[in-house]
């Protein structure tokens, strides 16, 4: 869904997908949560601190979490 309000320049993006901890095989419990947590650690060329600094400069917020039924990145 896209809603445009010209007076307030705010954008929110959320991606939810069916890949929660309920779908994990025995022996790899917590894999979904671990993978989503790694999204916040940066990249090969951008450290976690640099990533957070760029988000702050944009006034942005990033989060990723997992539940029993689904995972969401926003």
| Major sheet description | 3 strands, antiparallel
Radius of gyration: 15 Å
The stretches of 5 or more residues where confidence is low (pLDDT under 50) are none
Averaged pLDDT: 81
Beta-strand proportion: 5-15%
Helix percentage: 25-40%
User: Which class best fits the helix and strand makeup?
Assistant: alpha+beta
Q: How far apart are the first and last residues' alpha carbons, in Å? A: 14 Å
Shape estimate:
flat
How do the strands of the widest beta sheet line up side by side?
Answer: 1-3-2
- SSE run: EHHEE
Number of helices: 2
Number of strands: 3
Defining key terms:
2 helices, 74 residues, alpha+beta, 12% strand, flat, single chain
Helices and strands, with pairings:
Elements (H helix, E strand, L loop, with lengths): L14 E3 L13 H8 L9 H11 L5 E3 L4 E3 L1
Antiparallel strand pairs: 1-3, 2-3
Structure, described:
By secondary structure, the protein is of the alpha+beta class. The protein contains 2 helices and 3 strands; from the N terminus they run βααββ. Strands 1-3-2 form a 3-stranded antiparallel beta sheet, with helices on one face. The model has no long low-confidence stretch (mean pLDDT 81).
Task: Describe the structure in brief.
This protein is of the alpha+beta class and 74 residues long.
């Amino acid at each position: 869904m896209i809603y445009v309000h010209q007076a307030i320049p705010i954008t929110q993006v959320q991606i939810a997908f069916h890949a929660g901890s309920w779908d994990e095989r025995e022996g790899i419990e917590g894999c979904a949560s671990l993978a989503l947590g790694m999204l916040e650690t940066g990249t090969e060329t951008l450290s976690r601190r640099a990533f957070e600094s760029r988000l702050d400069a944009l006034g942005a917020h990033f989060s990723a979490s997992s539940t029993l039924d689904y995972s969401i990145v926003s």
